[in-house]
Description:
Layout: H1 2-51, H2 62-87, H3 93-96, H4 101-119, H5 125-131, H6 149-154
Amino acid sequence: MEDETKLSNSVTKIFEEFGAFAESDQEKRDDIKLKVRELEQSIREAVAVLAKIHHRDGLLKLDDLLANVDKVTDEKIKPRISALKSVIPDGQYYRFSNHFNFSLQRLVFVVCLVHYLRHDDLLSLEQAAERLEMTSNEAMKDQKLYLDLEDYLAG
């Protein structure tokens, strides 16, 4: 009977620890989802500004449109990238990357299109990461948000 009590207490302790871990993990995921939602709002704003190039006089106002996208990128997107990085635990980028990789791909599209419209050439992975104050160096993914090759190519 005593062994059964010890076993029952041991099993209960294991489930309590697992429950605490699951709750903590869900809080991290919720924090990440909130930061991604805020980032996506800014990305949508930048995409909406870029969509104006399709208007009748859009290309005539190209410099103003690109300046507006730069303003959104610098004032809204970059701080939100930093905020997103702050809620991703060190060493766990890939564990949570499925929550934000589509957003990063859309963001790469925005900065690459702006660069192409200005310079008539393609933006490299390193340049895209630098423009967004991210890193393309996997070894530094705990210091800055990491832009991996797949997200760059999909964007």
